[in-house]
Amino acid sequence: MSIRVNFTVNGSAESVDGVWEGESLLYVLRERMGLPGSKNACEQGECGSCTVYLDGIPVCACLVAAGQVEGRSVRTVEGLADGDRLDPVQEAFLECGAVQCGFCTPGLIVACHDLLARNPAPGDAEIREALAGNLCRCTGYEKILDAVRLAAARRAPRP
Amino acid sequence: MEFLRPASWAEALELKAEYPDAVPIQGGTDVMVEINFDLRRPARLLDLNPVAELSRWSTTGGVLRVGAGMTYTSLIRELSADLPGLAQASRTVGSPQIRNRGSVGGNLGAASPAGDSHPPLLAADAEIEVESRARGSRLIPATAFYQGVKRSALAPDELIRAFHVAPATGPQYFSKIGTRNAMVIAVCSFAIALHPRRRAVGTGIGSAAPTPRRAGAAEEYIAAELDWDSRAALDPRVVARFGELVAQAASPIDDVRGTADYRRHALGVLARRTLTWAWHEHMRERTTT
Ligand SMILES: Cc1cc2nc3c(=O)[nH]c(=O)nc-3n(C[C@H](O)[C@H](O)[C@H](O)COP(=O)(O)OP(=O)(O)OC[C@H]3O[C@@H](n4cnc5c(N)ncnc54)[C@H](O)[C@@H]3O)c2cc1C
Ligand code: FES
Ligand code: FES
Fold first, then answer.
1. Would you call A44 and B37 a contact, using CB atoms and an 8 Å cutoff?
2. Residue A68: CB atoms within 10 Å
3. Cβ atoms B81, B64 nearer than 8 A
4. Total Cβ atoms within 10 A of residue B221
5. Does A110 have pLDDT greater than 80?
6. Within chain A, what is the greatest distance between any pair of CA atoms?
7. Residue B7: pLDDT band by 50, 70, 90 thresholds?
8. Counted domains in chain B
9. Which residue, B276, B5, B4, B9, is CA-closest to B161?
């Protein structure tokens, strides 16, 4: 048996057939919709590399059952850039050297994007807290913190 | 597998009555881990997300009724003043992503002895509202809800609808031991609630017995020892005795996260610390009012 799931992904209405009832949103995005930006690293909510927006709220896509997104709206890392223009958070990650192997990057980008939307000028403690659910095994996090600070500074309204 | 999507609470109860083996899924932060790792292959999933009322709270007769599906993030945002102990515990759950999905109802459904919502629910005398189509709804005191490791008083045809708890009338604190600040299953945890109007103290112990439990003897001892009307500092001997009684109330085991001895020791520390925080807050309030 299988189900059909209708939902909006990055602004476009989609309908996916043949979804197994126990399947995760992450699997549907990566394996059925050709959206491999969200990464699969742990499938247990520990690493945050699968972070996507569900109705505007960052969640681990590996822990959302596909059937639960029926009628709802999902935004993945693929949906952050404006055409060819990267989101300021994406640019800041590149410029600061916050990307090494890149596996953690999409999840971190979504988590940072959300943080800056809620709090345009976060302090270091707030950045650390907001990113506590995203693991990176390469960078040692310092460059990631630099990237968040840079993105925040650029987003800040100019005086 | 079948994926059931009730449109309302009544329909959810219907489906649970028809298929008692259906596994409810709210935030999925426990259920999906089990499915992803093939630890569980339920015949049916019962998605509670469409039942919007589960994510809301209300107040009736001075008592809060908090929907089982309310996420930790919403609870922290909306109920920190009324339920400070539970809000503190909620802040320690997982990570932002987990708190954005995970719910107290799911924590109750999983009934893990390490669930962080349990100690503050116990300390604040919460009651769990459960319901079945056949027998209607009933209120289970938190103390009677937890029945064993990952076992609760919930019947197979029942669903958890809400929990009921009075807003705090005194200081409440929660503390837990783990290896880092985020993403930590408690090695042990402790919650305290002072109820100055009735001169009572509530406690909850987590991760140090087959079920979350209260430390009854410690509660009675400290409620009698506290000088509720004065602003007197705590007698260190009384604080120490409270810590001992809390530690004695636990029946911990050795496991990967810690030894029984360590847990007992750490619980004593948490009990002394949270009592001191709570009493200082109580004194401050007396000074300012
Ligand atoms: C990475 C990670 C970190 C975590 N960290 C913590 C932590 O620090 N502290 C902690 O306590 N927990 C933690 N958890 C466990 C989990 O997040 C919590 O137990 C959470 O409260 C579960 O809520 P949920 O809505 O996601 O539950 P779900 O997974 O949807 O359900 C959990 C259980 O409850 C049942 N259930 C759900 N809703 C109902 C209902 N209304 N009626 C009857 N049964 C119901 C389900 O059938 C299932 O058995 C963590 C999990 C992950 C993946
Ligand atoms: S893959 Fe989802 S949190 Fe790691
Ligand atoms: S860049 Fe490799 S895990 Fe973060």
1. yes
2. 27
3. no
4. 18
5. yes
6. 59
7. very high
8. 2
9. B9
What torsion, rounded to 10 degrees, do the Cα atoms A26, A32, A35, A40 define?
A: 30
List CB contacts (< 8 A) between A111 and chain B.
Answer: 96-97
B257 and B151 inside one domain: no
Q: Residue B244: inside a domain, yes or no?
A: yes
8 Å CB contact of A63 and B3: no
pLDDT tens for B129-171 read 999 999 999 999 999 999 999 999 999 999 999 999 999 999 9
pLDDT for res A157:
62
To the nearest whole Å, the CA of A159 is away from the closest chain B CA by 31
- Nearest by Cα to B120 from B63, B57, B205: B205
- pLDDT averaged over every residue in chain A: 96
In this prediction, residue A158 has a pLDDT band, given cuts at 50, 70 and 90, of: low
Q: Is residue B283 part of a domain?
A: yes
B-chain CB neighbours of A64 within 8 Å are 28, 32, 101
| CATH value at residue B12 | 3.30.465.10
- ipTM score here? 0.97
The protein residue whose alpha carbon is closest to atom 2 in ligand 3 is: A101
Global pTM reads 0.97
Q: At what angle do helices A105-118 and A142-155 cross, to 10 degrees?
A: 40
Token representation of residue B119: 């100690």
Nearest-ligand number for the alpha carbon of A99: 3
Q: Which pLDDT tens digit goes with each residue over B80-110?
A: 999 999 999 999 999 999 999 999 999 999 9
Domains, chain A, ordered by start: 2-76 (3.10.20.30), 88-155 (1.10.150.120)
Mean local confidence (pLDDT), B191-206: 97
Q: Assess if residue B118 is contained within a domain.
A: no
Q: Domain range for residue B219?
A: 172-288
Both B87 and B57 in one domain: the answer is yes
Secondary structure class of B81 (helix, strand, coil): coil
